[in-house]
Each structure stands twice: as C-alpha cells, then as structure tokens.
Specification:
402 residues; alpha/beta; Rossmann fold; 2 domains; 8 strands; nucleotide-binding (chains A, B); cytoplasm (chains A, B)
Chain lengths: 402, 402
Amino acid sequence: MKSVGVIVEYNPFHNGHLYHLKQSKRIAQAEVVVAVMSGNFLQRGEPAFVHKWSRTNMALKAGADVVIELPYMYAVQKAEFFAQGAVDLLSALQVDALCFGSESGDIHSFTHTYEWMKKHELTIQHTLKKEISLGVSYPEAMARAYKSLPDETNVLPLDKPNNILGYHYVKAALDKKHPIELHTIARSVADYHDEELPAQESIASATSIRKSIISGELASIQHYMPQSSYEELQHYLQSEGTFHTWENYYSLLRYRILTSSVEELRDIYECVEGLEYRLKKAASSALTFESFIEQLKTKRYTRTRLQRMLSHILLNVKKRDMDELLAPDSPPYLRILGMSQTGRTFLHQRKKKLTVPLLTKATGGASDNHPALVLDELAATVHQSVLSSPTPEYKRRIIIRD
Amino acid sequence: MKSVGVIVEYNPFHNGHLYHLKQSKRIAQAEVVVAVMSGNFLQRGEPAFVHKWSRTNMALKAGADVVIELPYMYAVQKAEFFAQGAVDLLSALQVDALCFGSESGDIHSFTHTYEWMKKHELTIQHTLKKEISLGVSYPEAMARAYKSLPDETNVLPLDKPNNILGYHYVKAALDKKHPIELHTIARSVADYHDEELPAQESIASATSIRKSIISGELASIQHYMPQSSYEELQHYLQSEGTFHTWENYYSLLRYRILTSSVEELRDIYECVEGLEYRLKKAASSALTFESFIEQLKTKRYTRTRLQRMLSHILLNVKKRDMDELLAPDSPPYLRILGMSQTGRTFLHQRKKKLTVPLLTKATGGASDNHPALVLDELAATVHQSVLSSPTPEYKRRIIIRD
C-alpha cells in the first residue's frame, strides 16, 4: 500500500486542507494518507482552536487514514525543528512520500535551493548571525544573506511562510537521507495571513475562519469547509461551550508570570535574557492577552516567537527539559490519534517493521511514561482546563472510523 | 495617649469583634485602638472573604483608630509565628497594652501557664516531638505532653483555638520582655468553629456568617454585625461582583500544581516530603477545591495546615524565601492601611520615636521594595485576580476616616 504523508495543524480543517489532502494522494499515487498533526498547541505558539481529538475527527472524515500526533516538543517550535520532527515521524513510520503545500508549487526549486544553501552554508550562517545581532528579524536577515551571494537565480526567496516550511521539510528529509519521495503543490488562493473571508472563493485562510467564528458568525464559515468539519465545530461549541484562543488562558498565564521569580522565567525554554522583566511589567498592567502581547512586542521578537515562549511559560517547559527531549536523533514514539479502516490495515502492515513504539492508547500519567508524552498530556490538561467539564486525557481512546 | 492593640482578621467584621474592640479600650483604659490585621490571606490558610481595604473600612467605622497590616509572612503561619509577628509589630509601634479574646478570659492563667511551660519546656518538647513522629496531631500531642507532667492544676489546657493564640501572644511578649500590658476578655457566646447562625443571639461566628452569605443570604447576617460592616459587604458585592473563597482560586491552584515538577513543589514552604505526589494526584482528578482537599487530608495533617501550604503554593512562596524573611528578630516595617483622626494624632506622636519605618503609601512593585512587601503586593494581586476589574495595589491609598 503506497502511502503519502501530510504535515498539518487543521486549525480548523477547511477546503484548502481538503484540496491539499486530495491532491497529495493523487500526485503521489497513494492509497493511504498519513497526517502528522500538531496536538493542542501549535507552531505559531497558540492554543489549538479545538482540541486534537476534534481535529482528528475532522481529518478522518475528510479522508485522512492515519492521524499521528506531532508532540509538543516538535510542534511548538520554529520551522526548522517543527519540520525535522514531523519528517522524522513520517520516516519512522516508513511513509513512502511527502507532499506539502507551498507558494512556489515547484519541488525542483526546493531541492535546488537546498543544494545552493548547502554550498553557501557558512557564508549564510555568518551573515545571519551578524544581521540578527544587529537586531534584524530572522526573515529579513535571511533576505539580506541571500542578496550577498552569487547564483541566486532559481533560488527560492524564503520569505513566504509555506515556502519556509517546505524548504525545511526538504532539508529535513535530505539531510538525513530519508528514502521519502518529495512533492509539493501550489497552495490555492488563500494567503496564510488573510484575516477576511474571501467573497468569491470557497477557500479561506484558517486565520480568517477563526476570526469569523470568534465574532459569533459560525454559520458564515460553512461555505469554506467540508460539511463534516462544520458539524464537528457545531458539536464542539454545543458540548464544550467554547473555542480556544489565548484570551481563554490569559488569567493562567498572567498568574504564572506574576508568581514566578525572574530566575524562574529565565529558565523557561526560549525565554531570552532580559525578556523576563518585560514579561513581569506587561503582566502586571495588562488585563487582556491582546494588550499584554502588544506591550511585549518589539521589532526584534516576532509575535510568533513570543507566543511560542508564552506557551512554554504556560506549560512550565524549561530549557534543560527541552534540550533533553530534543537531544536524541529520532522520535521516541509514534502516537496514533485516529485511523480509518484503510489506515488500520496500513498500520498493521507497517507494525512489524517499526523500530519506534506505536502508541495506540492515551496516556494515564503513569510515572514510566516518556517525558515527551507527559508533556503532551500536560498540554492537553491545560488546554482543557478552561472547559467546565474537561475529559481527562487518560480517558481518551483512539478514534477509529468505519 | 494611651493605646491598646488588638490582633484581628475581621473576616468579616461582626458584633463579636465590636464587643472585643470596645471592651479592650475600656479594660486597658485606652484612647487609641491599634488593630494589627491579616492582609489578603489568613491564618487558617484561606483567602480573605473581602480584601484588606474593605476590612480596613469596617474596622475604622467600628472604632479602630489605626489599622496595620500583618504581613503575609506572619499572617499565614501557625499560632506561634502569627502571634510573634503581631506582638512584635505592636511593640515596634510602642503600643501600651494588648487585649485579646480567649475562651479562658483570665490573664493570670495565661501568665501562669507561660511560667509553668517554661519550667517544663524540655520535657514538653521531647514528648511533643515523640508523639508527632508517631503521627499524632499537634493539639493531641500537646494534651498528652501535659498529662505527663506534675502541677498541672491552673494550667490552661491549650485545646481551644483562642486560648492557644492567647498563650502565644503572652509568650511572644514575655519571651522578648516587651513592655506591654497584657489583658484578656472572655469571648462571648459564639464558638469559633460554629457553622450555623445562632437564633437568639446577636453574636455569631465569622465562619457561620461567611457560610450564610455564600448560600446567598446576605440579608440574614445583618443582625450579627454593625450596620456599617453590613453596608460595606453590600457595597463589595455590588462593586466587585463576588466574595472570595478557595473555590475562586482553585483553577489557578490546580494549574500551578499540575504544571509544577515534584521538585518545585518540594521547594515550597511547609510542603512536607511526600506530599508533592498526593498534591499532583488529587489535582489531576479533583475539579473543585472541596473535593481536592478531601482527597488531600490525612489524620496527620489538619485542614488548616494543608490550606496554609496551599496558599504558599498559590503564591509560590519557597522555603528559602520564607526562612530569609523570618530570620530577623524584628519586623521590617509598619504598614498603615488606615487611620482615624485620633489614630493620625497618635501616629504623629509615635513617629519620632520609631526604629522601624512607617509605610503610609501602597507599594508599586519597585525593585527596592522589601521582599515582605513584594510578597504582600503579590498576595493582593492574586487575591484580586478573580475580579473582573481589579484595582492594582499600587493605586491604593491609605484610608483616612474623618
């Protein structure tokens, strides 16, 4: 059974995702689609709009065959670590191909860029370091590094979010010589950062979809997602009573920052020296997450980077913990969140050949759980803690779709 | 101007407090009443039902002339440290007399007990240590220590809460040879732990008053407190929207326990070895504070002791921080929360002779604030954090009553 992997967040699942899923299967001529999906906290450092079990439902109903959780330690990371973790998981499951959406849409431009970057690696690193030390943001520093080099024709300018991610997928696969076919498809229409729903199209960005839902217009987004996803969102709102944004967690985050010493804040993963004082100052005056992050923002730190740091503060993830988690060269386990019947057959075939344990049960806080799993369970507990009747993670069962 | 000190919590102020206040003034023949009052967290390890500013209002309107905050480091402590801190504050202000309520009502029985205890100190300590190591609670161990000694006639059995506190006030004053007159008055009628409002009397316990208010019967308690206190409570509910019990803080406490490592919990003041695992277990399953503390309770640890530990967890007060705070032999400052015109004249007289700084402004989170003051400000911030529009502590001004 030929399989294709997709790396996703589905926050929430929409028509753009459906297009990507179908095209990936077609282009890779695959029978099985394996989705590696972020758990309850996402790459941009945000709590997932609906929890991972709900998003697994959406994925399965829309055609994914296997949903694997991208652990927090890889999910809430800059593109480089996010991509490496996800590609390593697909490789651990011996998935045959990877297909990602990109602004470029041309896989050769990615492999060419990879080779070119490898050739000029030292110079680029040097320029990057210099520019960043001058206070230039990462994307801007990258652009400057490019301009200083020869043969930049046909090299992808890594200034668009999905080209950046795509580049890192390709790099992750080629660096480790993973035997995985690489494909990309051009993302259609919606721009990742669009905040408005488009009037004429059936594809909108997840950002604009979340924004519309939060302003109380759940019905207005029906047009932009499969009916099954829409029903899942309706069901979520009815049963859980709320969707999840940073505002829901601000009282906890604020409390944590105000009751932590500056030394404790400094110990948190990605908390850069000096930021601990800004954090305390902003938390004492800001009463909403939006005003808090507005006070925190500087030219130097992007909102995304700050949000990732805030996720780590919320979950008390320390530098030394994360360093230990990321030290091994391969993922500690493959955690299945859900599968179709096709997915089940596929996993049954793969099972015998795996070198990484396949987890099909939710965790239960047992002391012998892998620390990465303990962190995922904690992320779920905190994510759920804003609901009036949360379901403990250990009571969750893998979702099987008939 | 002769002054008398009272050591209080006023949670909330009621007729029993009014009686104590008036009698103290009469018995000590004082013109000025100085109330040393716990801040936003109390000796039994509970958040104050209304914040300290509201309770200062009640105290001043009922006849107190000066209200001084008993800092968190002394307030949320077993009787011994609570009493020492409060008596040291009164002595630092050179208050002439102290009058406390007790079940006994006879000051000579307290001084006699103090002398007797001093004589038998080593034997008592030895028995106490032995019994406690066998898992016996502190009051029970104390009772056993008594029985093993001669001449126990006229010695107060320290098994009633206000006799225990009273004994420690007397001990605190005599141990340090503070030149302060000691008086006690018999507490009338209401038992400290009564949960029901009495039908025939106008004095009820603060516990029963809080209980009635929480069950939505604010009007039912009007009979048991001065009109001014009742109006203050009405105003609090209107302006702040809620009173404060542990349930209001359980989401923060639970979050803190679940996201702390066992090592971090072990570092907290009064967290006894082994309890960190019980804390994590109870927090993962309990969704209310009541069910949480029910799961936590053992024969060995009283609810009060556990609640004090939980306050320290909520505010992240570490063993080493508290040890440093308690190391000096005298209080670091006298913080005035409010005063009457008489109180103002009194403070003006005392001012010149003080060896301890008199703080008349609220703190502002300045980095040179005394750590004890920083802790009080944090206690206020966390206490207020459950309100929709909290007033930051640094905006508070000392209350002056005309």
